[in-house]
Amino acid sequence: MPNPTAAMLVIGDEILSGRTREGNMHYLAGELTKAGIDLREARVVPDDADAIERAVRTLSGAHDWLFTSGGIGPTHDDITADCVARALGRPIDVREDALARLQAHYDRMGTELNEARLRMARIPEGATLIDNPVSAAPGFTLENVHVMAGVPAIFEAMVASVLPQLTGGAPLLSQSLRIERGEGDIAGPLADLADRYPDLSFGSYPYQKDGAFGSNVVVRGTDGARVEAAMAELAAMFGT
Amino acid sequence: MPNPTAAMLVIGDEILSGRTREGNMHYLAGELTKAGIDLREARVVPDDADAIERAVRTLSGAHDWLFTSGGIGPTHDDITADCVARALGRPIDVREDALARLQAHYDRMGTELNEARLRMARIPEGATLIDNPVSAAPGFTLENVHVMAGVPAIFEAMVASVLPQLTGGAPLLSQSLRIERGEGDIAGPLADLADRYPDLSFGSYPYQKDGAFGSNVVVRGTDGARVEAAMAELAAMFGT
Fold first, then answer.
1. What residues in B contact A40, CB-CB < 8 Å?
2. Which of A25, A196, A237, B9 has its CA 20 to 30 A from that of B220?
3. In sequence order, which residues have a C-beta less than 8 Å from that of residue B104 and are 6 or more positions away?
4. Which residues pair with A43 in a beta bridge?
């Protein structure tokens, strides 16, 4: 049986103007190759509704999977979700499950979930959410299209949740914990924990908020009980 | 008047498999932006004749300029020149002017211009050669398509020769000198020379051959007499 095929669509004026260097194609290409999926084409288009819709329709029609990167943030030029919905003929609106994730995240951060941020809860009907362990705003899978963030740390986390489901591997479960200490403070105990749970993967994503450093720690694995156990130890260690 | 538009086509299995990180898009995007040309789309396709031809036809038809990167070397999977010729309906064969450049280069290097390397002299009828100051094998411009090497140092040198001609600037003249000394030995005198010719640009491209280091120095400018004068000084300094 030939390998399944995939395409990538990178969305963003900042790549085509030369302001930002594209940073996700190389990672996705490597991960797909490891997973036995052939990446056959990649395209970069600007924040232009017609260009995005046309590319989504063409590439999702020509390949088994399409992965998109970029354009799902809170600003007016973040139009990827709406374009994907139109390309696949689905209605789109603020969805309760996405809204709940954002609300919980911004409550924890003590930040207002304003009109602009609400935009990130716009999810097409019938789509499955993709977890965002860094900044909560979810990606989504609609039909054969996986819509993911452009920020490399988030893109990579999203690819890690999506890929096992495509290749017949066991679904990857993930839980995250926000720890109000810098990465340097938690690195030692975290490494010990990772040693004792070699079947799980541990990721740490630093953030800075009001001048204080903190870390979002993500624990991933296929065995839910093991992920729960590691999370319980983590919470006990860092007392949150 | 709106800016002219451009597209980029990156050709190479090694990018889509994740073996090599794409390295030319960011550079081209920045140079086009500085030159007032809008890069509207970029695509990456594998070393597949149908995929390359289709992309060349689509992108050259939709934009004022198309820039390609990759697939013009000596191996069997370097099929860009033949695909561009077919896409634009031109015959292609080994061309005398391209052959002469390769012959001179390999004679200087004491290397045989074998059957495989002859492949790099295949140029479509009616195309204009693009100078390759590093390894001689030329790129070419056919209609609105600029076909360039994938190796970043060569790609960048080719963009530097092509761009001024597209934007109505004076054509950039270039001459190069092969110097059998390492870059560290020539850097000082070269910097002095560059100071005295602020209207010219000086590039140095290192090479290694049979364990010895050498440098190809490229002098570029719009005033032919100035380029000649700088080249004469350079030759006197390094006695070749």
1. 16, 45-46, 51
2. B9
3. B136
4. A9, B43
Output phi, psi for A215, to 5 deg.
Answer: -140, 135
Does the pLDDT of residue B171 top 80, yes or no?
A: no
**Contact (CB<8Å) A18/B33:** yes
ipTM associated with this complex: 0.78
* DSSP bridge pairs for B41: B7
CATH annotation of B173-238: 3.30.70
Residues of chain B with C-beta less than 8 angstroms from the C-beta of A17? 29, 33, 39
Tokens, residue A33: 């190759």
Residue in B29, B43, B45 nearest the CB of A15: B29
Which of B14, B28, B44, B53 to probe the A interface (max A CBs under 10 A)? B44
Compare CB distances from B42 to A39, A40, A43 and report the shortest one's residue: A43
Q: List phi, psi (to 5°) of B6.
A: -145, 160
Tell me which DSSP letter residue A128 carries: E
**Which of A17, A33, A41 lies at the smallest CB-CB distance from B43?**
A41
Q: Which class in CATH covers the domain with range B5-166?
A: alpha beta
Q: Per-residue pLDDT tens for B91-103? A: 999 999 999 999 9
Q: Percentages helix, strand, coil for chain B, rounded to the nearest 5?
A: 40, 25, 30
pTM metric for this prediction: 0.80
Dihedral angle computed from the Cα positions of residues B154, B156, B159 and B161, in that order, rounded to the nearest 10 degrees: -70
d(CA B69, CA A102): 42
DSSP string, B130-169: E--TTT---EEEETTEEEE-SSHHHHHHHHHHHHHHHTTP
Q: Which residue has the tokens 């260097």?
A: A21
Do the chains contact at A31 and B18, CB–CB below 8 Å?
Answer: yes
**CB nearest to A42's CB, from B30, B31, B43:** B43
A38 CB neighbours in chain B (<8 A) are 16
Any A CB within 8 A of B37 CB: no
Domain boundaries, chain B: 5-166, 173-238
What's the gap in Å between the CA of B21 and the closest CA on chain A? 5
| Mean pLDDT calculated for residue range B3-26 | 93
Q: Does B110 touch chain A (CB under 8 A)?
A: no
pLDDT at residue number B51: 97
